[in-house]
Design brief:
There is one protein chain. With 406 residues, this protein is an alpha/beta fold. It has 13 helices and 16 strands. The chain folds into three domains: 2-77, Arc Repressor Mutant, subunit A (Orthogonal Bundle); 81-185, ATPase, nucleotide binding domain (Nucleotidyltransferase, domain 5, 2-Layer Sandwich); 196-375, Nucleotidyltransferase, domain 5. 44% of the residues lie in helices and 21% in strands. 41% of the residues are buried.
Length: 406
């Protein structure tokens, strides 16, 4: 019995490995799959035959460039094997994307997020309507949707798709799986948005650096402040999203949206910069949403040399730098990628960030870490969704279907 179970696990692992290689590299020939996976030709033949028979992958032919000789037979995922819906929740909108099993975007739309005081109940109703709408537009049935992947800023349950705390709903929790049952039978997963950004950046780094990649931090700046950390652990990556924005920056300091005082976000979030620039008392209840246009006006004055707006951005940078210095002291010196709508103000934040980082022992000993600005965060969020969700679908398909070969 033990031998049979172990053999089945090997079969499943090898099948998932083949699917992940096809997802990473696109259509490949039999020998290319064997080279990329390290599996024997016989094993590849057995796995691909099973996957093709189950209509998970399909064959296509590619004519030689010279136009002579036999065409190459390539293997790839079947696009209609199943579908994924990606739901990205931001401060002012919710974006819905429909993706096929090969990772191709089929349809996408965004809806403004209501700031209705009825809160989570009304929001869940809107999400259910949005999910139905994206299927209706493409005429795809619910049964073909294998997974719904949702992301938000805030704290998420590590094992269940439950939003524990968020800048939008505060401590009003949302259990997305319960909210979508029984209408939806697809698997539901939920991730912190900045964790997905870090995952996407880590995947990009690994493509470039291979085994030389060690670690990277992604700092997201905007209405809220998030941090994702990706580190290599053997053959895999370990990804985490510590509650960075709500780490203590100054005891008894400014009031944060989380209800406590002195958080990093209470000095570096958009609402904090607005509060500081207008010299509003630090115990003023934070605005839930600040239009970027308002921050642009403050930034324009700072760049023109106005002292108070410039001070507001410098203080924000200092809070971020101090927080990053603590993070590096607890982990290791690593590159830092700054993402999010706040990157448009990096020129105003930079001095404070570097000053805050320079106060840590590790930076004084080893030098300033590499800091890069990555402007289009939404692309990274979507990449992170695809990387995570499609790998989950691959695993579920293989396990439920018993696919693979030794």
């Amino acid at each position: 019995m033990l031998t049979k179970s172990s053999t089945e696990l090997v079969r499943q692992r090898n099948s998932v490995l083949v699917l992940s290689v096809l997802r990473r590299h696109g259509a490949l020939a039999h020998t290319e799959i064997a080279d990329s996976t390290g599996l024997s030709s016989a094993t590849i033949s057995a796995i691909t035959a099973d996957l093709e028979r189950a209509q998970i992958i399909e064959k296509s032919e590619q004519q030689a460039a010279s136009g002579r000789g036999r065409p190459r037979v390539l293997l790839r995922q079947r696009r209609d094997c199943g579908y994924l819906i990606v739901v990205i929740i931001s401060s002012d909108a919710v974006q819905y994307s429909l993706v096929d099993y090969a990772g191709k975007l089929i349809d996408r739309f965004s809806e403004e997020r209501s700031h209705d005081p009825s809160g989570a109940t009304r929001f869940v109703q809107a999400v259910r309507a949005g999910l139905s709408r994206i299927l209706d537009r493409s005429r795809i049935t619910q049964e073909k949707v294998l997974l719904i992947s949702i992301s938000s800023k805030g704290l998420v349950n590590s094992t269940e798709p439950v939003l524990v705390w968020s800048p939008i709903f505060g401590s009003e929790q949302i259990d997305f799986e319960s909210a979508l049952r029984p209408e939806w039978q697809a698997k539901v997963i939920l991730d912190n948005e900045t964790l997905l950004v870090a995952a996407a950046l880590g995947a990009r780094e690994e493509i470039v650096k291979g085994a030389d990649f060690r670690s990277l931090a992604a700092l997201s700046l905007g209405h809220s402040v998030g941090l994702g950390i990706v580190r290599r652990g053997g053959q895999t990556q370990e990804i985490s999203a510590p509650n960075f924005g709500h780490m203590l920056h100054m005891a008894g300091g400014g009031l944060c949206r989380c209800g406590t005082r002195g958080c990093i976000e209470a000095y570096a979030g958009f609402y904090a910069i607005l509060r500081s620039a207008f010299e509003v008392p630090l115990d003023t209840i934070p605005a839930k949403f600040v239009p970027v246009a308002e921050l642009d006006k403050i930034a324009a004055k700072a760049r023109q040399g106005h002292r108070i707006p410039a001070f507001a951005f410098r203080q924000a940078g200092l809070a971020l730098g101090n927080g990053l210095s603590r993070m590096l002291s607890l982990t290791e010196r690593m590159p830092i990628a700054i993402t999010g709508p706040g990157t448009r103000y990096y020129d105003l934040l930079r001095q404070g960030i570097e000053e805050g980082l320079g106060q840590s022992h590790i930076v004084r000993m080893e030098g300033m870490p590499e800091i890069r600005v990555v402007a289009d965060e939404q692309i990274l969020v979507f990449e992170g969704h695809l990387n995570r969700a499609l790998s989950v679908i691959d695993q579920d398909i293989v396990v439920s279907g018993g696919q693979g070969a030794e």
